[in-house]
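Still learning folds. Look over my entry:

…
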Amino acid sequence: MRFVTFRYDGNLRIGAFMDDRVIDLNYACVEMLESQEQLRAKQIAEAYVPANMVEFLQGGEPGMKMAKEAIDFALNSGQSFSRKVVLPVSEVRLEAPVQNPAKMICVGHNYREHILEMGRELPPYPVIFAKFANTIIGPQDDIPFYPVSEQLDYEAEFAFVIGKRARNVSADQALDYVAGYTIANDVTYRDIQRRTIEWLQGKTVEGSAPMGPWLVSGDEIGDPAGLEVVLEVNGEERQRSNTANLVFTVPYLVEFLSGLMTLEPGDVILTGTPGGVGVARNPQVFLKDGDIVRIEIDRIGALENRVKKVEPGVIA
């Protein structure tokens, strides 16, 4: 299943992406319950399948079960609906699947080739840092390039989203706590990142985390190892690796992070970037105005964004 957050008629909603159509999950649920002559159909749908991705994930398996039933009803009932339940994708704007995660945790130095190109040794423990919700933009947004820096860099990332509260979870049960997987670009202002020993300021500039285009459910992906990850800039390949090359795997990261903190539904974890980042190339090459950055990951799809220069004094 591919879950999306989309904008239609000025409103943010969540849906299922199927064959160039988007099924509004909340509205489909309301229509299904009304067809069953359920009292308080809107309230029940709002409780189980709200129109917000984080709240939907908080509902756990009961909400997921009802959403799947609603999708089947929307596609196969043959009824006409009073609400906009099934929409052509051409009529909606896809946004980042998760809009306001409570936590956005990033893992640095997690692909062997990237560690080597940065002149470092394999870390004994994951290197973790944070990005914030202000960085998130969607698959149809431009990457803003602010004049605070001249070194805008790309980082293809395989990301996963937590589906239920996790604390001290063992690696062998970790995938039960993953709702699904998506693509992210850990856009980094390199000179800002490196002007102190902490990376945070170079990682949290507004609009520096393109994400999407959807969240592919964990049951569809299965084992997250063995997925090819490719990044191109203007059609030129810059990064290529495979999630089999992760030093710290998804199950390990769930175990490690849930041992430090409680992971909540909707939390986003970026698993690190492969070799080939602009700062490590010889000569170095950074993103510029108009560049098209495309990241493709097996069985998930592609995330493509254009870089857009922001003039001084302009708020993007």
Notes: The first helix runs from residue 25 to 35.
